[in-house]
Specification:
Strand order of the largest sheet: 1-2-3-5-4
Helix content: 10-25%
Number of domains: 1
Structural class: alpha+beta
CATH superfamily: Nucleic acid-binding proteins
Number of strands: 6
Number of helices: 3
CATH class: Mainly Beta
Shape: globular
Largest sheet: 5 strands, mixed, barrel
Radius of gyration: 19 Å
Order of helices and strands: HHEEEHEEE
CATH architecture: Beta Barrel
């Protein structure tokens, strides 16, 4: 009987440990694959935080008005492995971001690639941004 109780307690512990994994959002939950975008702007801030990084970008619209966008990128560890450093996106950097806009049509997007003014390109580390809404590559 005691052995069965230990097995049940261990199984329950594993289930509760997995709950935070279920809470993590998928690409299709927040972003729209049918709304690709390409933004050229100036970095105002780069938040290197877990679980995802955020690039704040001032983008000048056709009417001349400047709009701030938030671009979601991969985790700091993933970005560093892809060639980023903590100094890669200082405020004032001119970049072009390719990605997908948020479903709520706000000024938020998930980034796919960044192109720097010198032509260098870096992947933003979110492989889900390359998937279709059903999660297939």
């Amino acid at each position: 009987m005691r052995g069965r109780l230990i097995v049940v307690a261990a199984a329950a512990s594993l289930l509760f440990a997995a709950v935070p994994v279920w809470a993590h959002h998928a690409f299709a939950a927040e972003f729209d694959q049918n709304r690709p975008l390409k933004l050229k702007g100036t970095v105002t801030k780069w938040e290197v935080t877990n679980p995802h990084s955020w690039i704040h970008l001032d983008v000048k619209g056709e009417d001349g008005a400047v709009v701030n966008w938030m671009i979601e990128g991969g985790s700091p560890n993933n970005l560093y492995r892809l060639g980023f450093s903590k100094d890669s996106l200082p405020p004032g950097s001119e970049i072009v971001v390719e990605g997908y806009q948020a479903k709520d049509k706000s000024n938020r997007a998930v980034g796919k690639n960044i192109t720097f003014s010198d032509g260098r390109k870096l992947f933003l580390g979110l492989s889900s941004a390359e998937s279709d809404p059903q999660g297939k590559k």
